[in-house]
Design a protein that fits this description.
mainly alpha; two-stranded antiparallel ribbon; 13 helices; about 5% strand; globular
Length: about 325
Amino acid sequence: MNELLFNSVGRLRSGWRFIIAAFTIFFFLLVCQVIIFFIFQILTRDEKASLLYTPFGLALNAFFSTIISTILGCFFGKFFEDLPLKTLGWVFNRTFAKDFIIGLILGAISIAFAVLLAMPMDGISLIKNQTSDLNSIIFTVVSSFGVFFIAAASEEVMFRGYILQTMIRAKLAWLGILLTSIPFALVHLGNPDANLFSTINTALAGIWFGVAYLKTRSLWFPFGLHLAWNWFQGAIFGINVSGISQIAPNPIFRAVDQGPTWLTGGHYGVEAGAVCTVALIISTIVIWFLPILKPTEDMLALTNQENPKELKLA
């Protein structure tokens, strides 16, 4: 029984840490969402709490999700593994800005590549938005950046935070990436027009983000990828982001999707199309082999093994 629960260095085994942390985090997130729902219901006197599904409501929910996932991630790191708070990956170290900026650049290139793949086959064409005034476009570009910013932060610390990192320290990185990518895909099943193809691509995106974290041991890099992908897709190209259109109602361009759906993704957006599959696979390979992406020595030590004596020396 002792060997079933504890590893060779006397710590609770990674599988138990993963299960306890994942269930606790998602339980508190669910409780938070229920509380916010009832507060909106009472304040707006709307039984469906419709305001919760507006950009403001989505951003508010994502904000609290980020706080909860960050606090619990730090708590479990300290409680189970006696790790400093910076281990979670939100640290402002000497490489965080570089990781974030490179993430933004590669995320933008990746979504642009997916869109460009569909253009020669007449699947998607981009037309300058001439139906919205300049102020509306500027407001959409700025406000959607804020919503996508907090939404990306929320999902990255939730799925690439402690629950993935504790598996990496147990030398189970690829299992951890798989175990976090599947629920990442499943939580998007409730989005408008979600289907099997969109779910597979979202799981693939989870692997993309997981590899990005593994390569840098910093949440800033997958956060930048995630933010740029969503923002460029919605506010720049005018494509639905995981089936959602209300976050960026007045984009710079408006995408005209002429199908076929298997290629372009249809109403869900390119994330339900083959062009997304190709772009994510290529981007993942590029990230894995890109030499400028690497962790700092202290973050590598804190996220690469479980020996408490070695951790204190790091």
